[in-house]
Amino acid sequence: MKTIEFYNHKLQINKEGILFWLEKEIAIVSDLHLEKGSSFASTGQFIPPYDSEETLKKLLNVIDNYKVKKVILLGDTFHDKDAFHRMSSKVRFLFEELIKNYEVIFILGNHENKMKIDSINFYQEYVVDNVRFIHEAVQENINQISGHYHPVASIKVSSKKITTKCLIHTNNHIILPSFGVFTGGLNIHDPVLKPFISQDSNIYFLTKKSIYKFSNKEIESQY
Amino acid sequence: MSDNFKLQPIQNWLKKNNWFFYDHQLETLNQSINGYDILLIAPTGGGKTLAGFLPSLHDLINNNSPENKLHTLYISPLKALTIDVHRNLTNPIEDQNLDIRVETRTGDTSSYKKNRQKNVPPHMLMTTPESLALLLADIKAKEYFKSLRYLIIDEIHSLVNTKRGDLLSLNLSRLDTISPNCKRIGLSATIKNKNSILNFLSQKKKSKIINIQEKSSPKIEILETENRVPWSGHMASYAITDIYKKIKRSSMTILFVNTRAQAELVFNKLWHENENNLKIAIHHGSLEKEIRRKVESLMSLGKLDCVVATSSLDLGIDWGKVDLVVQIGSPKGIARFLQRIGRSNHRFDEPSKALLVPSNRFEYLECISTIASIKANLLDEVKDKDGSLDVLAQHILGVACSNPFQIDELYLQIKKAWPYRGLKKQNFKEVLEFVRNGGYSLKHYEQYAKIDLNKNNLYAIKNRNIRNKYRLNVGTIVEAYMLKVKLGNRTLGQVEEWFIEGLNEGDTFLFSGRVLEYQSITNNNIIVRSTNNSHPKIPSYAGGRLPLTSELSFQVRKLISKKEYWKNFPNQISDWLKLQFKFSALPSTEGLLVETFPRHIKNKKRYFLICYTFEGRNANQTLGFLISKKMQRMGYKPISFVATDYALAVWSMNEVENINIILNEDIMLDDLYEWLEETPLLKKNFRDAAIISGLIERTIPGHKKTGKQVMFSSDLIFNVLKKHEPNHILLQVARNDSYRGLIDLDRLGDFLKRIKNNIVHKKLDRISPLAVPLVLEINRQTIDKSEVDEYFLEELENEILSEVGLN
């Protein structure tokens, strides 16, 4: 895990893309996109229906090892409004393990627009100690942790280009990578992310083995 | 000519041009009239195409005012060939005012034309395997093809044993059911597995092969050069001046190379020599279609002096008066080379001429072996391939789109397709289940099933949408993700994504015969501008990618093994082998020669292990990896390895003692399967299988998926699938494709068996002469590409040669 100084808070990012605020016993993760695989079936593409299981198992396996009481899901937990009902019994079981063992806060993402599930309350935002947890970053000068963009970044390592999911830390913004096993990515240099990235941003590359921190300046100097 | 042959109009037309029927053309006609399906094997320029059409023309001519029904189907693998043949056929038809309507139908045909062809069928339709699959997936397919009398498949040898051929074979078997009285003619180049091809074409008892040999053996020579053949590398730079001299003296030359990178480099070097301002052009698959068409047209008009080309010019079309074929580097296979030579001098009864230009010493031996093999009429063995299951999945959906089917009937029909003759019912059912709902063990997607039993107990598609989507995804060719190279408004061609990954703004590279400067990427385009630089910064890998065939590698081993074979070669070769014999040993045809010796790399003592397998680059690459893994487990501390077509070299920190344990067959294969599971190759083959089988769409109507998006998704799907359904059909397909392809597993297995208990180990105190090219190759490959300095390499080379006594 690598430590991120977010104002006077110590946060830690692990290589799977989960952000820990251990002082508060909170784990934060974003964009699970559960049932993304099965969402293609109606169009005739039978994508293997195992992504939800993988995603939930991945999450539970990591947070079970830490002292975590609360899990904040930064939105797009579900891929679409019918996703909850498509979950298989195995997935449902894992999902229930999650909400049984932790206090889970569901932030509402754009994929969950108009979603209504009896057992779930969706929040537009959630605040802990002047840190705002939201789905999509806003151009306001507030401390915020969000997801939505599925950021990925590329860096050259001895003439070979490596692209991985990443976390963006710019002053008082943190943007988390997407956690879902079938989620794709948007490059940090895409114009859409321009308002949230500067030369001084720190980019944390997440690989199978470890986490590598680079400043955006260093990355850009390669191009 | 007998009265039975009422081909007067064709005869008249031929006479006009001072041409006559060849014997084999008449024989083809005769046999076909007698009810035989025919495989005609003839070299290029032998009037094959006309021979293929004679039976059909004969039937049509004698059938005054034929109805508006499909009579003849001509299938070729290339769109361009289809168009070309159409043009050639229309000449006599128009000239003699025959009432025969001929049309082409490919991916490029307009929808207006396509509709017309469906409503008012032409007598003869020229098409590709993919367009045929689409026609057969139509509801009215049975009606359309019922009247078919003749089916001609051109360049059939290039389709057999590929996924494209698999798809075609399935459609042929459907046509068998729809029009059982149709007669078939296959046209093929010279190839070894003739009977396989005949079976592919037709399994009727009344089927036969007509085999036409070249009247005279081709005249092949190795180019004599001013400079010596280099020890390693894949460039023919040493011979460019001599090649240029030959081009000057010929009317039109085709210079064949093995890769696009080689084509660009050779083309570039030739232009530096071009003091006589000869018209030299370049032709390869990555160039924009317009550029290629222009070159082709200039060629047929005789307006070019030379074309530098890759396999893009291998098939079919008439190229005009080519009187010299030059092959740079080894052709890597006998049949392939014969087919290329066939391009020179289209006159059937004169010997064709060809020149070989080896790019290193080992290739010299390969070239000699090629010449010897051709003299002895030896050809490369081609292993029969089982029909691919991803193609079968695509086909099953296509059948359902055409009409509801009964499961057992379909199974029997599929088994009649030659590559699928061994298909087990169990596998068929698995594929069917996959098509229906993805084939997952818990049937997650049953409610979305694409095909289901209808009230007549037949499998039918659930709705029309499925048919529309199917039509967009037909085909077995999956393109690599390509980016367009744009110079101003012009598109010069396409390059693979990996090529761009190493480029920075301002870098220069060779493409389309120019030195271009990379500026930026937007969407799917690489923006470049011209430069006046004559030397590009980015070197491209110029090594061949085609592996040496087994036959040719055996010939080379044989050539080296006995002094009497090579003692009369030019000194640069015979001295080399003499020294090897004295200092170490010559590899034999049986068994394996292994050498070990120490060398210093950057002042550190390293131990080299060289295996002279001659099994081709791919198998050697795999073997290199496996040996390294083994050595690691045994504590030898391997550092790296390098493989060529002839040998592989592993260097390590500790000296290897027991060779036999390392090369043990059983332990090898376990490691191999384990390793394969992690390779990018498996993922790539999985991606292809996912697209061909219809798991992932190529394009979604309404959204255009970029190549990258498809690639990304398939990798994620792959990992998840491996975990949950390790024996899923698509994973099976991906593994089979990998074993057969780059890994060359069969070949490796045969090799390990062959050398069992037959390893000759020479423990040396320094590098052997035979190892010199390999060690130089190591230097070439391990030095940082941006620092490749020819001078530096030359220095190193001199050093090594002195060491060995070859200087």
Count every helix of chain A, treating DSSP H or I runs of 4 or more residues as helices.
Answer: 4
Taking all Cα atoms into account, the compactness measure Rg of chain B is 28 Å
Inertia-based shape of chain B: globular
Main-sheet strand order of chain B equals 3-4-2-5-6-1-7
**Mean pLDDT, all residues of chain A:** 91
Write the layout of secondary structure elements.
The complex is a heterodimer of chains A (223) and B (807).
Chain A: E1 2-6, E2 9-13, E3 19-21, E4 26-29, H1 51-63, E5 70-73, H2 83-86, H3 89-101, E6 103-107, E7 122-123, E8 125-128, E9 131-134, E10 144-146, E11 151-157, E12 160-170, E13 173-175, E14 186-187, E15 202-206, E16 211-215, H4 216-220
Parallel strand pairs in A: 4-5, 5-6, 6-7, 9-10, 10-13, 11-14
Antiparallel strand pairs in A: 1-2, 2-3, 3-4, 8-9, 11-12, 12-13, 12-15, 15-16
Chain B: H1 8-16, H2 23-33, E1 37-41, H3 48-61, E2 72-75, H4 79-95, E3 102-105, H5 111-119, E4 124-127, H6 129-136, H7 141-145, E5 150-153, H8 163-178, E6 183-188, H9 194-201, E7 207-211, E8 219-222, H10 240-249, E9 253-256, H11 260-273, E10 280-283, H12 289-300, E11 306-309, E12 324-328, H13 334-341, E13 353-357, H14 361-375, H15 389-402, H16 407-415, H17 425-437, E14 451-453, E15 459-461, H18 464-473, E16 482-487, E17 490-496, H19 497-501, E18 508-511, E19 514-522, E20 525-530, H20 550-561, H21 563-566, H22 571-583, E21 592-601, E22 604-612, H23 617-633, E23 638-643, E24 648-652, H24 659-662, H25 665-676, H26 680-693, H27 707-724, H28 729-740, H29 745-755, E25 759-763, H30 772-782, H31 790-804
Parallel strand pairs in B: 1-6, 1-7, 2-4, 2-5, 3-4, 5-6, 8-13, 9-11, 9-12, 10-11, 12-13, 16-20, 21-25
Antiparallel strand pairs in B: 14-15, 16-17, 18-19, 19-20, 21-22, 22-24, 23-24
